[in-house]
Write a structure and sequence with these properties.
By secondary structure, this protein is mostly beta strands. Helix content is about 0%, strand content about 40%. The protein has a 5-stranded antiparallel β-sheet with strand order 3-2-1-4-5, with no helix packed on it. The two termini are about 20 Å apart.
Length: about 100
């Protein structure tokens, strides 16, 4: 599959002072690490969709710390820190 470039606006300031694509979150009993694969790049919504081995789909956005969305490609492996309740991705890193 051909590499697809997407024009996301990155590095936006968040209320907590973390900039998109940097920083991290504490991993504790309320979170878990999930190995995922990029399945879709959605520039219209500034999102990247990833799927884990169990078939769960998660969205990475400009607010997801740890990864620049513009650097991701379909098929790429990403390790995510996900909340246990309401399954929200807190951080992501290219595997």
């Amino acid at each position: 599959m051909a590499e697809r470039s997407i024009g996301f606006q990155t590095g936006l300031a968040r209320p907590d002072g973390v900039r998109g694509g940097t920083g991290g979150a504490r991993v504790d009993e309320g979170t878990r690490r999930v190995e995922t694969v990029v399945i879709a790049l959605i520039p219209e919504y500034r999102q990247v969709k990833v799927r884990d081995a169990e078939g769960h789909v998660f969205a990475l956005t400009a607010k997801t710390a740890g990864v620049e969305l513009t650097s991701l490609q379909e098929g790429q492996h990403v390790v995510c820190t996900v909340t246990r309740t309401a399954a929200r991705v807190l951080t992501a890193a290219v595997a």
